Amino acid sequence: MKNLIFGLLLLTAIGSYAQENLNFNAKKEITSPEINADKTVTFRVIAPNASKVELQGDMLGAPGIAPMLKQTDGIWTYTTAPLKSELYSYSFIVDGLKIRDANNVYQIRDVASVVNVLIVGGGKADNYLITDVPHGTVSKRWYDSPGNSKQRRITIYTPPGYENNKTKYPVLYLLHGMGGDEEAWAALGRTAQILDNLIAQGKAKPMIVVMPNGNVDQQAAPGEDIKGLYKPTMQLPNTMDGKMEETFTDIIKFVEANYRVNANKSQRAIAGLSMGGYHSLHISRFYPKTFDYIGLFSPAIMPSSKISSKVYENFDATLKTQFDNGLKLYWIGIGKTDFLYKTVTDYRKNLDKIGAKYTYVESEGGHTWSNWRDYLVQFAPQLFK
Amino acid sequence: MKNLIFGLLLLTAIGSYAQENLNFNAKKEITSPEINADKTVTFRVIAPNASKVELQGDMLGAPGIAPMLKQTDGIWTYTTAPLKSELYSYSFIVDGLKIRDANNVYQIRDVASVVNVLIVGGGKADNYLITDVPHGTVSKRWYDSPGNSKQRRITIYTPPGYENNKTKYPVLYLLHGMGGDEEAWAALGRTAQILDNLIAQGKAKPMIVVMPNGNVDQQAAPGEDIKGLYKPTMQLPNTMDGKMEETFTDIIKFVEANYRVNANKSQRAIAGLSMGGYHSLHISRFYPKTFDYIGLFSPAIMPSSKISSKVYENFDATLKTQFDNGLKLYWIGIGKTDFLYKTVTDYRKNLDKIGAKYTYVESEGGHTWSNWRDYLVQFAPQLFK
């Protein structure tokens, strides 16, 4: 009787939440996506009135769209072939309208679009899962950037145990690509999960990971600054004109003043994807005694010599100086079908010409987060050894 | 010419992102929602094939659904009446299928549903906006809860300047309702924005805000624990059976060991909404010398005497002891149409009976985040005076 009364009151309470929670009292409860034992994945949509429903996702072969099948109960379904371990993203297209999966609350934003995600484990994507290991802390905070005359937002990962000891840690500066911001590596890149797992497995040293916003005209990610909840667009102004490189010392100063770090070259790494690879290349060259570890993930190596910024002057000479100063790892990764493949090949020739030693990894695939997460998993264990 | 070459390369780079970014190359660029100068809001959906499109949202009067009008270009629109300043949530219903607004990346999850949000400023919702003031830090970290035999995730707001001084701060423990988790107050409650603004305006003292997970069977919010990306449900087990109250000392110990706080009654506050109001009531009573400030926001006051947990024993006597010990603020807020209105009225009679002094605020509306954000805005300035 006691439990009955309590249960009834709880149900009343739940009813009240449904006022707030418009979708909660759905008529049919379905599961989507459902990851089956054989690693196939079943997607489901309730759309009795639709005449055509499709699945669009990166788990499908070209062209990346597959028709879903209508069942007698108005539920459309699609089951994939067995899938490799990966973080996948997808949408549904219902009578031409692209929608998200109402039964999957997990999603990521990339610039102005939001897609659902799922993780198929049992392989490389196990690195992206939250596992039963000690967890680091992810903080969103603000720092002063005098070089940009503004407060700016930054994401900082501190490793498990950071708060409870006196150890000084090494720092990896991890930079996003065009369209990204200080949220990108943590959300799309699963950085905290990857580092938690690699550190727990003894594969990577405990390190602080600093994820700044590489669009110097932005204070913060869309929705996180005084511009309010505007519609995001690609950030072009000043993202690749030297300003990020010139003002990067603001970030290093902030980190070294606010965290227990070893403030020396052997304990600093910088890596980035696409535009962030470009930034990492130039920042590490422009401050040639600052980083012992450099990672260029599918770097967008633009003809920087064509841009009038002192950051990009004397490219070959300053690059040679950087290597002559000595560094421990200069790591380049790119996918075989990446549209930047040729520029990276040309850049490698340039490195060869000046006698620079680097590590080169050529992966399958193109310009994708799947590769960038992989590169982080490969790169982080090589740091601070 | 230099700029042209650079621009072309940038466009190529953008093209490559579109591979990742399935929605980016939409054929038509529309804005939705558009907040007009007169505080009306226009919503838009591109759905040329649909035969019926509706807007569902809390800015509409009952029944909360309005038909949208099809324009000649296949875009459906709806413009509201001028709206009061508020954070609103909404969805579209296209031929019976509830979908999110593809042109609005801002959204919140509440249990298993995700809805779009917008903020109409110029009034009370200005407190929810990010403004040009110093910003606190929001951290997601893990603490050990021996009482629950697990590591658990917690959200901590530290006020602007916390990292750069030696001050000891007061602490507000802020608890979510049923269906919520350690993400709820930060996401739905706009806690960081509210505190940043109130502190900058001199209305609230700088304080640390601790937002734990009140579902003791959970390690963390859905998607943030080892269960992976499962479909969330209401958390019933052990949420209101005394376990949260019994193990709350784990949270206080963690906070007081890891943050610069004034560890005394006059510098501790506890508040919560709905189930979190119930937790706040019982935690403050069960540890009757711990909190000088208690906030019950639309509290779900269950017949706790019917549940067999020592936390709920001797209700009146222990409540009287709490008040006899002295406290500075016992604040109760509830909406006139809240389904919990009567139980709160009964509880107030009980407080009157034992001679307890409290502050009572009766607002318009029901069991909604609109009220809970308001209550925080009213409650926080009264703390630690």
Summarize the structure.
2 copies of one chain form a homodimer. Chain A contains 9 helices and 18 strands.
The profile of the biggest β sheet of chain A is: 8 strands, mixed
Q: Radius of gyration of chain A in whole Å, from Cα?
A: 23 Å
Oligomer: homodimer
Helix-residue proportion of chain A: 10-25%
* H/E series of chain A: HEEEEEEEEEEEEEHHEHHEHEHEHEH
Which ranges of chain A are low-confidence, i.e. pLDDT below 50, for 5 or more consecutive residues? 1-26
CATH topology of the largest domain in chain A: Rossmann fold
Structure overview:
2 copies of one chain form a homodimer. The model of chain A is unreliable at 1-26 (pLDDT under 50). The longest helix of chain A has 19 residues, at 2-20. In chain A, helix 6 (275-286) links the parallel strand 15 and strand 16. Chain A has 2 domains: 24-122, Immunoglobulins (Immunoglobulin-like, Sandwich); 131-382, Rossmann fold, CATH 3.40.50. Chain A has 9 helices and 18 strands. The first copy, chain A, is an alpha/beta fold and 385 residues long. Helix content of chain A is 24%, strand content 25%. An 8-stranded mixed β-sheet of chain A has the order 11-12-14-13-15-16-17-18, sandwiched between helices. At the A-B interface, helix 1, strand 7, strand 8, strand 9 and strand 10 of A face helix 1, strand 7, strand 8, strand 9 and strand 10 of B. Strand 11 (137-145) of chain A pairs antiparallel with strand 11 (137-145) of chain B.
